[in-house]
Write a structure and sequence with these properties.
The complex is a heterodimer.
Chain A: H1 4-25, H2 37-68, H3 82-139, H4 143-156, H5 161-183, H6 193-196, H7 199-204, H8 208-220, H9 224-237, H10 243-260, H11 268-286, H12 289-304, H13 311-327, E1 329-330, E2 346-352, E3 357-371, E4 374-387, E5 393-408, H14 414-420, E6 428-433, E7 436-437, E8 445-446, E9 449-451, H15 459-465, H16 482-498, E10 505-507, H17 512-521, H18 530-536, H19 547-558, H20 560-577, H21 596-625, H22 629-649
Parallel strand pairs in A: 1-7
Antiparallel strand pairs in A: 2-3, 3-4, 4-5, 5-6, 5-9, 6-10, 7-8
Helix pairs in contact in A: 1-2, 2-3, 2-20, 2-21, 3-4, 3-5, 3-20, 4-5, 8-9, 8-10, 9-10, 11-12, 11-13, 12-13, 18-19, 19-21, 20-22, 21-22
Chain B: H1 2-57, H2 70-98, H3 104-127, H4 137-140, E1 147-149, E2 155-162, E3 165-172, E4 179-187, H5 197-202, H6 207-228, H7 230-238, H8 241-246, H9 257-279, H10 285-294, H11 303-336, H12 341-344
Antiparallel strand pairs in B: 1-2, 2-3, 3-4
């Protein structure tokens, strides 16, 4: 078999040279960034070569075999002879090597090349967008956002004269802004969320007895806010029959009475401060999202109006901020989401086990980042359409911006978990905040809009899809009971709507990893890596994707080496069958070389056809065998391998 | 031409002696049997592939595979039989190349069998009308709860489908104003070909195969037209079998069998392309008109094709005879002097 190697290598080099020569001779290229033309030509040539590569390699192998076994039927006059077994060993080694090379090309090289090729094609529009964003952001004095764009533009095309100017400008602007911030402490860092985050959990981690002690200590100092705060925490922490519970309740009630009847104010200002503080404290204790927000704003105002050093204000502002940041997010976090999009369209479906509804989620774009060590994703244009279990429309919700954090599952108690249909093995689930508030001004809110009527399809889409306009509002006729049905439906619908309050946060009952995986899924399985697909395939249906499509892709890609091996052994058989014949005097003739491209073309057609049939068979297996598809497919291709091997081993020649 | 072959056989039988004649007959019988097997197995293979294709075509996401319908198998066999006949000639050539068959009788018999298959079997195949199973409404109904990309490129999600009326969402990500539309009781548009666009999108035919299928369809149309044109018309069309069978003459062109194989492939492809071009509008138009004008009093349809086919047949047969004689001489030399000692001396 060693003799075949030079043949194959020369052949590959020949085709490679032809591809590269062709791509540089063929002048027609699309519009590209300056300086990309030669790279594009080269990548295009490599891409052509990569498409031809399997056919080249496999036809080279077959031809190599048929040349190497020239007149060589020694020891192979009968079927399953020793001679053919010896050759089979060589064939297997070569076939394995080629299979490895081709599988790597298929899984690694070609997707990478395709990405590079697309990136080059989209280069001009990417560059234009990055340049536009950078200059706009510079003009609006946002150098910290402008800089990454300038850098991106520079990385896309360093040869473009504008990009280096932009990069320098934004770098200077950024440096200036940084210098300014050293002397200006009142800038955006006034609210530091990061430090506020662990407060509530920290406080809640004490035991009930410790909390009660803290409450009593505070009461001794006449700090009734703290006394009530700790006593309330102690009530929550204490278990039902505990004596601590009783004591805590008494302490809380005492503190509350003290708070309700304050006395000894030196002036009106102090009284006002006290009332405001109590109001904020009450709101905070109520604990629901809008009250937290209220408390946050009251305390924020107090803090900014001369009470910055009041220990209660500091403490409760921190707590309120923590609560708010868990349910709301600040608008300025998302200002540039449109420009910083890192993903394309994302869509998926999810049914809600608590209410039995089906929800369809569509996200125009998303940006990933890290905050406090956990992944955060900002969503732009989130639409959620809710349908009843039977698929009837209930409502749709649109949020211009939303923030998703990975919420640890351990934060939920058992009842919540089973109610929401969350498995504790998921570790993290996406928690979506739909409402964004302004950091400083109360009342500026970006909140979700709910709608309870169908929008219906516009004429443009009806036309493009071939849906006849007259049929769009057609209702199924139901023998006179139509009106009753409608009534029943309306009653049912309003019942469901009552059970679905308009929320500002959504906990998705899916693992956070799946939430990341679905945005790749919307673009089809080809772009996903095998590990992601193998995890995703089981759940594809529940997210609205076809299990068959993903299973077929998984089968096709994992079993591709086995399939290739079958093809290689078959080709070796062809090589033996049609080897050089006609006595020892026959030497390899140079004019035969001209038939090599023809054999490459025939092999290319054969491979295209074989791949197509392979795909169809995998589809049928994935569709017919369900979860057992994998073993069935493996068994099928192993049987095929055994058959082609036996066919090869039965080769013999009488002369 | 025919007299020449008969002469060759007579000469061969006279010179060959008893043993050879017997072995010739044995080979002939074996090859005839093989030919019948190739026709049967080839038809079964094509029918199986076609059945798998229809299974995929009628697959609907989430509802698994529809029950296997034998009707599709028969349709596949019926549709692809002409292709199997064409390929059977190639397979027999491959057999001749593989086993270095250098006997005239089996070659002539296979040639005759091939031409007979064209003249008789294909018309029989066409007169056997297979009823393509029609899909029931239940088999066509899409499943709800899947994202599907529609004709316009927008993404559709049907939340419920009842009696062909669907409720759901349409994500219009094609226009500049990306928007989401909700709808109820919309009649799902009927699709051609694949039942489920979701499946269709992920199992698109490779472009080159698609092209071949398109060409094959044109060829099938021509074949069917010729069959409808009556026996003489069919005979004229079936003249394609002469050059297609005479590729057997190319089986000995080279010492490297692979070269012979590729020559056969190229010759068959060339003959098919020339015939299709002669029946459709192509650069051959003026030649066609000229020949038709010259031979207008003959009852032959499209005489250019017949002339062309006979010409190719003569050329390939001549190549075959020349190569056959050459090989016999070489074989004789090889038998007398297997290691080329005389030559070297």
């Amino acid at each position: 078999m060693k003799k075949t190697l030079p043949t194959i290598i020369v052949y590959i080099l020949m085709i490679f040279t032809i591809c590269i020569a062709a791509t540089f001779c063929y002048r027609g290229i699309p519009e590209l960034n300056p300086g990309d033309a030669n790279t594009f030509r080269f990548v295009r040539g490599i891409r052509w070569f990569a498409i031809l590569f399997p056919a080249v390699l496999i036809s080279g192998f077959a031809l190599g075999c048929s040349i190497a076994w020239k007149n060589e039927s020694v020891g192979s006059t009968r079927r399953f002879s020793e001679g053919i077994f010896a050759r089979f060993g060589g064939v297997i080694v070569m076939a394995l090597v080629i299979t490895l090379v081709l599988s790597l090309t298929h899984e690694v090289v070609r997707p990478g090349l395709e990405k590079k090729y697309q990136a080059l094609l989209e280069g001009p529009s990417d560059l234009a967008l990055a340049k536009k964003s950078a200059s706009e952001l510079l003009a609006s004095e946002n150098p910290e956002y402008a800089y990454p764009y300038a850098l991106r533009a520079y990385k896309i095309c360093a040869k473009d004269p504008e990009t280096s100017v932009l990069l320098k400008k934004s770098k200077d602007a950024l440096d200036m802004a940084y210098d300014r911030s050293l002397y200006d402490t009142n800038r955006k860092s006034a609210v530091n969320l990061k430090e506020a985050m662990p407060l509530h959990t920290g406080d809640a981690s004490y035991t009930a007895v410790e909390m009660l002690e803290k409450s009593n200590a505070a009461a001794a100092e006449n700090n009734w806010y703290l006394a009530h705060y700790w006593a309330s925490l102690a009530i929550k922490a204490a278990t039902g029959l505990d004596s601590v519970m009783q004591d805590a309740k008494i302490a809380a009630s005492n503190a509350w009475n003290e708070l309700k009847n304050p006395s000894g104010f030196e002036n009106k200002e102090n009284y006002d401060f006290y009332t405001k503080k109590t109001q904020a404290y009450n709101a905070l204790q109520a604990g629901n999202p809008s009250d937290n927000l209220k408390a946050y704003y009251i305390l924020k105002t107090l803090s900014e109006n001369g009470h910055k050093d009041d220990p209660d204000v500091i403490r409760f502002l921190a707590l309120a901020e923590e609560a708010v940041s868990n349910e709301y997010f600040f608008i300025d976090e998302t200002e540039d989401i449109e420009k910083l999009k890192t993903t394309g369209d994302i869509y998926f479906a999810l049914s809600d086990s608590a209410t039995g509804t089906k929800n369809v989620y569509y996200i125009k774009g998303a940006m990933d980042s890290i905050e406090d060590g956990r992944s955060v994703r900002y969503l732009e244009g989130l639409t959620v359409a809710t349908f009843s279990k039977s698929g009837k429309f209930i409502r749709s919700m649109y949020a211009p911006v939303a923030k998703v954090i990975s919420q640890s599952v351990s934060a939920f108690d058992k009842e919540t978990l089973s109610f929401k249909g969350i498995s504790s093995s998921w570790k993290k689930v996406p928690f979506i905040m739909l409402q964004a508030v302004d950091r400083v001004t109360e009342g500026i809110v970006a909140e979700p809009r709910y709608s309870y009527t169908l929008t219906n399809l516009p004429d443009r889409i009806l036309k493009a899809e071939g849906i006849e306009a007259s049929q769009k509002y057609e209702k199924p006729v139901d023998g006179g009971t139509g009106a009753d049905m409608d009534d029943a439906y309306t009653t049912l619908r309003s019942g469901i709507i009552r059970r679905l309050p308009e929320t500002r946060t959504i906990v998705l009952s899916m693992p956070y990893d799946d939430f990341i995986a679905v945005n790749e899924a919307a673009n089809g399985p080809e772009g996903m890596d095998l590990i992601t697909i193998s995890k995703f395939v089981k759940k594809a249906t529940s997210y609205g994707f076809s299990r068959e499509v993903y299973y077929k892709d998984l089968l096709g890609r994992t079993l591709y080496p086995l399939f290739l091996l079958c093809i290689m052994i078959f080709c070796a058989t062809i090589g033996w069958n049609y080897r050089i014949d006609g006595g020892r005097r026959v030497q390899f003739k140079f004019r035969w070389v001209f038939l090599i491209p023809v054999s490459g073309f025939v092999t290319f057609l054969f491979l295209e056809f074989a791949n197509y049939v392979y795909n169809m068979i995998n589809y049928v297996i994935a569709g017919a065998c369900g979860a057992g598809a994998f073993p069935v497919a493996i068994a099928l291709y192993i049987v095929l391998l055994v058959l082609v091997s036996a066919n090869f081993l039965s080769r013999h020649d009488k002369h | 031409m025919f007299a020449q072959i008969m002469d060759e056989i007579r000469h061969f039988i006279a010179a060959g002696g008893q043993m050879k004649q017997e072995s010739s007959i044995k080979t002939t019988l074996r090859m005839l049997l093989l030919y019948v097997l190739v026709l049967i197995l080839g038809t079964v293979f094509c029918a199986v592939i076609y059945t798998i294709y229809t299974l995929c075509m009628h697959m609907i996401a989430g509802s698994g595979l529809k029950v296997f319908d034998f009707g599709y198998f028969l349709t596949g066999a019926n549709t692809f039989f002409p292709l199997v006949v064409i390929i059977s000639g190639i397979v027999m050539s491959l057999y001749v190349i593989r086993y270095s068959i250098r006997k005239v009788l089996p070659i002539v018999v296979i040639f005759a069998a091939y031409v007979a298959a064209w003249i008789f079997l294909i018309p029989i195949n066409y007169s056997w009308k297979v009823k393509t199973p029609s899909l029931t409404e239940a088999n066509m109904t899409l499943t709800s709860d899947y994202f599907r990309v529609g004709e316009s490129g927008s993404v559709f999600y049907y939340s419920s489908i009842e009696d062909g009326l669907a409720d759901g969402v349409c994500i219009d990500n094609q226009s500049d104003i990306e928007d989401v539309y909700t709808f109820g009781n919309v009649r799902i548009p009927k699709t051609e070909g694949y039942s489920d666009s979701l499946i269709h999108k992920s199992i698109g035919m490779p472009k080159i195969i698609e092209q071949f299928v398109a060409w094959f369809n044109i060829f099938l149309d021509i074949t069917r037209q010729a069959w409808k044109a009556g026996f003489i018309g069919w005979l004229c069309f079936a003249s394609i079998s002469l050059p297609l069978a005479s590729v057997l003459g190319l089986c000995l062109v080279s010492k490297w069998r692979m070269v012979n194989v590729l020559s056969v492939f190229m010759a068959v492809a060339g003959i098919l392309v020339l015939n299709v071009m002669a029946y459709t509008k192509s650069f051959m138009e003026p030649a066609k008109a000229f020949v038709e004008g010259a031979l207008s009093n003959l009852p032959v349809k499209n005489p250019l094709v017949v002339l062309m086919n006979v010409l190719i047949f003569v050329i390939f047969s001549l190549i075959g005879f020349i190569m056959y004689n050459k090989c016999r001489k070489e074989d004789k030399k090889e038998r007398e002097d297997p290691y080329g000692r005389k030559e070297m001396a």
